[in-house]
Design brief:
2 strands, about 15% helix
């Protein structure tokens, strides 16, 4: 997969011997879905599917993901 570089030379260029479609494009390494490990689908990035994106959203809504603090709970929120 290649994306426009926007003039930023910090991205690695195509390996020697390979030609990209345009000199302004750079190669992007594929990532794995954080939920299941399958390849990421551009439409659902950083996930591979709507299912994995929905699972992650559900975990946020249920409070599975949270940052522990030393603060006392707010009595108005209980």
């Amino acid at each position: 997969m290649t994306v426009p570089s926007g003039g930023d030379d910090s991205f690695p260029k195509d390996p020697p011997g390979e030609k990209s479609a345009s000199p302004d494009l750079v190669r992007v390494t594929a990532r794995a879905c954080p939920m299941c490990g399958h390849p990421v689908e551009a439409r659902y990035r950083p996930f591979c599917s709507k299912r994995c994106a929905d699972i992650d959203l559900g975990r946020w809504v249920l409070g599975t993901y949270r940052i522990e603090t030393n603060e006392a709970p707010d009595p108005d929120e209980m």
